[in-house]
Amino acid sequence: MSEKKKLKSPIDSMIIDLILEHYNIQCLEGKRETLSGDEFMQIVELAEQQYYEQVLTDSKVGMA
Fold first, then answer.
1. Cα–Cα distances in angstroms (integers) from residue 33 to residues 18, 26, 27, 53, in the given order
2. pLDDT at 39 over 70
């Protein structure tokens, strides 16, 4: 059987992790779990910054 190639975006994974963290923090604070459009865009910008910092500091990723 042929193995299907999985396409995986590291920045998408970071965005998902940050969204989950956002919801967990709200839950722990006893707040209703919500995510506004502005909060989502802040998360996307944060994920981009973290991704580019990782690319610049990780020689394996930076050389690929």
1. 14, 6, 6, 29
2. yes
